[in-house]
User: Fold this.
Amino acid sequence: MATNTFSQAVLRGLGAHGLSEAEICRLAELSKSMFNLIVAGKKELAAGAMAKIEGKMGLTGGELAAQACEPGGGPLTKLMRGWAKVRDAAAATDTAAKRS
Assistant:
């Protein structure tokens, strides 16, 4: 499958982690028809589905997409890992500030 959209790359990244189509649908709570539309590039993953994927996988959509585009790693993968660390640090700071 050619990767033309971000959502397609995320799905390919999930597949690279060994998840089957059925497992991806359960993980993201997607119907089979929505999965097929995303694979065809006609729809994108909704924010809620992306949040479920990221929460359950422990990786950002960017990290999953990068892994699909660069199976052996590379500059995009490195950049997305760095961005995920920045995001996690910002979220931790925000959570700590809200508790104060």
